[in-house]
Amino acid sequence: MKAKTFILVVSMLLMAGLTFQSCNKAPLPDNGSPLDNLKIPNGFKFESTRVENITINMPSTVDFSKNKSRFNLYTDNPANGGKFITAGSFDTHGQYKGEIRVPTALDSIYVQTIAGSRKAGFTTQTTKGSGVTINFGNDYEITPPDTIPPSTKSAFFSNLSIGKYKEVHVNNLVQNGDFENNDFGTIHGWSTNHPIDGKWYFTTYYNQKMQWYNDGGDHVIRTPYSSGRLYYGGASQMVAASPGDLITFSADIKSTGSNNRLYSWLYIIPKDANNRSLAYYSVRYKYPSHNWTTKTIAATMPARTVKVQILIWNWDLSNTASSYFNNVVVTGPVKDTDGDGVPDDQDDYPNDATRAFNVYYPNETDWGTITFEDLWPGKGDYDFNDMVLDYHFKSVLNASNQLVEFFTDYSVRAVGASLKNGFGFMLGGDPANVASVTGTHYTENYIHTNANGTEQGQTKTVIVLFDNAFRMIGSSGSAFINTKPDVSYVKPDTSVLHVLYQNPVSVSTTGTAPYNPFLIINGERGKEVHLAGQKPTDLVNTSYFGTMADATDPATGKYYQTANNLPWALDLPVSFAYPVEQVDILSAYNHFGQWAESGGTQYPDWYMDKPGYRVASNIYTPPAGK
User: Which has the closest alpha carbon to 613: 621, 601, 605?
Assistant: First the structure.
């Protein structure tokens, strides 16, 4: 009887032990994690993004005292799949200075403005941004068309790719800009007066004029091939205009033949009632490429302007080559219904003077991911799936590039632990300046907020989105949700946080999204886990610093890293494919270790799905169709 009782007790203890183990992370093996053997340089904070200082200088030909105008930034040319990141406006001097957060793997950005578009490269691809300055107008000229060979002149020619700012090309002031209609007049010289009649006029110096040509089914105009005389001349169309009008002129240009003696200009020439030229604004294209390239000139019309001459001008010093033109677009004047300085066709809120631009992080379409290990200050198993949260920010700026409000879509994708963890983030700025916070979820009664929804007891703006991750995702019948392939998959829900400011605030004050995110461990408010190098909130329990595996030292600026610099959290500018339960990240991503040991210089895109980058069997994959 005693033997049976002993066996029963042992069996119950074994079952209890198994049940306990199924609800909790397995302890780290005695020999530690393979990550402990990494030689990580001091100062590396496991950042997959960086903040870049962006300066954009616009041409002096445009008056920005009233028209602020818009720029757009993309990850690449949108025609090549580039994704929209942010937008903004220029100050009265035609300059923008600001910060954007981009992936460390991104080596360039694409900038669209009314003065053209350019791809600008970053000097470095490290976690410390080097900044980039983009100048528009360096290739502008202010001299009239003439017959002096341009090889005797000097000018700056940008080697950056240039394209149209398509967002503002709504109403084309010229007619037959695609040259599909064979309806052209003639004038002797470029200065010869001609009517505002929607017709192109070819100059006829030396009885030569541009040609209407069928270029593979697409009609264009081109400089003439000549066996005996060099060609100079062009095509002109007159449009109505008034003083203060902002006029932009874009055209696609290419060449055929030997192009090293071809020169082309786009001219905007404002004229008075007597047909006198008031100014000359032009952009020159030396040796046009054999591929279509868009050139743009923009200028504000001076006093006494009653019309504007749109002039395509050429020097063709070769009898075996030709310059081609197509897709001429001329815009202006602009309409600004709400009077905020941003034209309606560039304004996301044309009837609201308090709002102007929608901007996004990581970009307009992609989501980012924050992943955590939750055994801090102890070591975890480095599968970085104790909580996996996806996010997407849409921020609304006013015409002065200040933050008015932001919306954060967020979704808990996985919980690979039994602890009831919360999540929040900290922004710069006075929390009293927040008008309201909506979209938070509290069930555990340990988060205390002010009337506006910000957390009490904080000098900076702290917003806790939820206090129990399990309440943000359905049950899987296990403590492990979406981390084990043999456990039922739970489809994540999406919530929306909305933060509205009383007074618009500078982005340099708040910082850039995703700001300073942190985990609150198991309902203990003072037990915060932040990204490596990020400071805690005012409510942190500092007694945890420097205990167990944590090597936080506020005096040296080291936060939330081990003695050999390992982190407890990662932020990725993509929706991250995280490892399966109890498989460390080194076993799932082949280049994570090289990235870490190089201080971020090697394989900055280690998390991407590229050949040889991943071990698919060690990465959690939702069931097909989920």
Answer: 605
